[in-house]
Amino acid sequence: MQSIQFILFLKAGSLKCSGEYYDIPSGSLVVSDESAVASTVDGYHLKNIICYSADLLPIYKTLTQHSSQSNSFQRFAFDRCKILSLQKNIIQVTERLMSIQPGMSLRFIYLYCLGLDSEYFYNLLNLMVGNSNELLEFFEQNSLNAWSVSRYAQELGVSSRKLNFFFYQKFGTSVKQWLLDKRLKKGLELLKSTRLRVSDIAMECGFSNHAHFSDSFRRRYQRSPSQLRTLI
User: Fold this and answer.
1) How far apart are CA 52 and CA 60, in angstroms?
2) pLDDT single digits (tens) 11-29
3) Coil, strand or helix: which one is 84?
4) Is 158 helix (H, G, I), strand (E, B) or coil?
5) Pick from 100, 87, 102, 90: which is nearest to 48 by CA?
6) CA–CA dist 123, 79 (Å, integer)
7) Of these four, 10, 127, 132, 179, which has the most CB atoms within 10 Å of its CB?
8) 26 in Cβ contact with 9 (< 8 Å)
9) pTM flag (> 0.85)
């Protein structure tokens, strides 16, 4: 299982998963795998959050540090159509977070699920993250190193092809794209919070040169680093 979906049914609808159909009541949150297809009568009133293993790493780290229950996972059977009730205020907060910070919306909804069924979602968390925790940590800690993909593979003792295969499973993207996303986000953060020169920010974020950072930044944010800074 490469990913899971959190699907908010704002109106009644249905879910098709593994050849079976499920009727879903209005105001429901459904947790299913990546193959599930959701629908409503009008085709709207659905909100979907795709979740990869790496997306859950912050929650996993917090729970393993502060909760004894996170260290006692039991044998686990994944429910392909886990249906939970959603309060109106939870729907409103989730929609708001999805519009401004998608990553935070996922953490919010997962913590909500933990509150409703802690045993199930603790075990789902372990299924998604537990066996890959150290490897995910390695990339989080070294994402700003000015390394090529082959250097990361070398550090881990695997081929570049195998590393990319792992990334598509855990992150839903290639190593190169994931590293670029991480580095650009860090660059944006430093542009907003410091007065470092753009060239220094490029080096700090793992780019080999100023031009590569500026070109990648412009493609992502439709402005150069210098132009964005003048707007802050």
Assistant:
1) 13
2) 999 999 988 999 999 999 9
3) strand
4) coil
5) 102
6) 12
7) 179
8) yes
9) no
